[in-house]
Queue: 3 jobs
Job 1
Amino acid sequence: MRTKSPPMSLPQLFYETTVGKIYWGDSLELLKDIPNNSVNLVMTSPPFGLVRKKEYGNVEADSYLQWFRDFAKEIHRILRENGSFVLDIGGSWNPGLPTRSLYHFKLVIMLCEEIGFHLAQDYYWWNPSKLPTPAEWVTVRRIRVKDAINTVWWLSKTPFPKASNKRVLHPYSGSMTELLKNGYRAKKRPSGHDISSKFSANNGGSIPPNLIAIPNTESNSSYIRYCTAEGIKPHPARFPRELPEYFIRMLTDSGDLVIDPFAGSCVTGEVCEKLNREWICCELVLDYLKGALGRFPVRPSEGKDEEVSYRVMKPGYHWNQRIEDKLSESGGATRE
């Protein structure tokens, strides 16, 4: 049986590194104890509003907005003015029907119109390895295709949160590499777009789209090996390390503070440890935290990129450990 913290208890310190802390308990209580305007990034994936109950304690879609409202208010309060809130959240199906719930769209509207966030950008995480679900509509009646996309809402307190897409560039395609090598004659495309001579400038990589392709196929990481050795069941809904790493790289500087209030197995903490960000993770279920210990100490060489057979570039191929330029505090409000 999974061990949850006592009701209304203050979170207890469970584990600590030189830059991060893990707490066991109610994250809403933890958030209330964090000072105003002190956090650079909240990166999290809370339990989704699903029709079918999961073991990690998800809230029903119809009740989701009411449940999340208090968390949203605290997250808005603790964020710095140029900070960001990145929310990975999956969609849901209406009970007994091959139609989709709108709860995650209603959620982002509430976050913006009621709480005061700005929607900096909507992302979509495509998991190519996702099983064909929901089975009734996809594999039995065959009237829908498999659901393989999560929405990732990038929210902010200001229209100009600090950010740089230079941190997450993709390597150039073969054709673009050839173009840079041989030169490009500026001209208009048939569509009418005017491609200037600046198009041939080598900027170190291509700007990624807001579709992120990451197969969620972790099978031999230090976390999985630790759980197996200790007889601990791994968290059933982990996001891959590259997802939080994408946003931590793009939206924070070394030494910034990142918080994950629905930490699960503390993937966010593992990434922050690797990138030298200060971090706080909080999780309600003690057993998940016992397994999370397998992520620490972080071994930078852990995990190799897998070959992929799809066209959308997987984030991470272009990342390295070089010192990054500091993000603009104005968030791009002015040209620099």
Note: The chain is about 25% helix and 20% strand.
Job 2
Amino acid sequence: MTIEFNNVYVKSVSAVAGHDEKEGTFGKLYDKTYDDYYANEKTFEQAEIKMIEDASDIALKKASYKMDDINFIIGSDLLNQITANAYSSVKFKRPFLGVYNACASLCEEFIIASSMLQNKEVNNALLNISSHNMTAERQYRNPVEYGCPKPLRSTFTVTGAASCVLTKEKTDIKVTNATVGTPTDMGITDPYDMGSVMAPSAAEVLFSHLKNTNTKPEDYDLILTGDLGVYGKQILIEYFKSAYGINIEGNLEDSSSIIYDRKKQTKVNAGGSGPCCLALVFYTDILNRMKKGELKKVLLIATGALMSPTMNNQKLSIPSVSHAVCLEAIK
């Protein structure tokens, strides 16, 4: 299903990140960074809440908005009950929607907010998204204290938070359309092999978007996936060529594969992961390039593994869903 949007624009964005991300490829582009996983808070979870609050404040300041100017907030993170965004929303005192599509949540937020902005009663929305290496890893895999070595195909959960103000007010970046993805399940049970889990759903939504919009891969200056990792990215390229006979290698990039300096930061293995991975790349380097005129039309594909540790322990496979959102730079 592809939806066309009218009069939905990006007013402002912000990106705050942890110390590992600061040492990565886009470290100098973040609005704020933290020296450790605690961000001057008592626990990792409280640190993630603090990052969301900081990102929100920065995005509103950039937009010259007050919180009262926001009609509603959408928030997403990886924790049970969307804990970090649920707690931060209490401080914001605005209508709140908590959503969850794992690492596909960024595009899910764009789709929901853009659809609501078609309503004449809605003018501005604040989209918040976060992830934290320590909170996510100990929830989904092993306690971080366990010290379990990870295979090279694994990815490293990004620590950071990002905010975006969407508005009806015309700006230089427009949200033009989006495609809601269909879940896939290829029978993979390995909780470390997220690239293999998510690549098929990324291929499904990309093909659907191209078909529904009557476009080709070369019509986009960049197709940017969320967190497939270096191996998942290659799987997507080969899968797409095999299944659909289309080569997407020329203008495809994966946020996970480029957010860290993998030669120096060897602990990240195949790259970054988490719902904030795509946001930290897109809200910094890619949006800057769009504003400079280097990129005009960008297709975001947020990739999500719908993984449950409970179901994984029951030996069930891991389903995946991906969503696509097209943004264009306009004069």
Note: The chain has a mean pLDDT of 94.
Job 3
Amino acid sequence: MEQILATTFRSAAPLVLVATAGVFAFRAGIFHLGLEGLMITGAFTTVAVAETTGSVTLGILAAIGVCMALSALYWWVIGPLGANVIIAGLGLTSIGLGGTAFALGAIYDRRGSLFTDVVLPRPLSGITSGPGVIVSEHSILVWLTPLIVLAAWIVLRRSRFGLRLAAVGEYPFAARTAGVSPSIMRLQALLIAGALCALGGAELSVGALHNFTENMTNGRGFIAFVAVIFGAWHPIGAALAGLFFGLADAIGIQSQINITERVPREFVLMIPFVLTVVAVWLGGLWRRRSLEAEAGYAELKEPDF
């Protein structure tokens, strides 16, 4: 049980960070399907810069900068250029997946993986027995994740910025009448989302692991998007959904270790995705609430100057 809990926290942290990014975008009326691309870009940039400079801090800062730049590009495409939000998001994901694989070969002349000895610090790594073993090997980002979710809740639900963002997502025409620029608010939300995706990618590559691998996100960005819907577009709800998916992933990982050979490996690997499908079905029971963001999404179909 202790091992399952430890694996759950480790697997859930990147999902929760990226799901929180999705909440910011959704509150602005944007269905952000580019989370996967930003997440893997953050993972690659963190490893590449950390391995070159020997500093994981510089790696994370570089990842945040690159992901925010891609988020600004995404905003420019769906805003001033008036591109379809869904197609542009999928394009951003394709750029992230293909671009990192290309950069790995072009810069390091290798395919598959890039290993590094630079990892995030683990505050409780000295604990070897007792209940503390559950969290002893977790990086500092895992510890900071609950604080980030709490900060996101305060910003979105208890600040002027959050109220303006909600107005832009739900009633953009009324927000414009009140002197709030929907375009600028969407840009700010996407920049925050980019930074959070970079943190999620960093935790995945130098927190839980010591390397970057092609397609290492393996659909986690899309699962995080599902967590946003399953969590009713609330930062805490999305975090709890991400924790649930982390538990599903932990069950799958532990099952590969403990289940006998009579159970096909493919069956074990599909467990997290089956639970994700079930969660999507349950989330569909609250589908009507998506109408709240319909006005913000519909406005993005037209150029916003």
Note: The domain at 2-291 is CATH 1.10.3470 (ABC transporter involved in vitamin B12 uptake, BtuC).
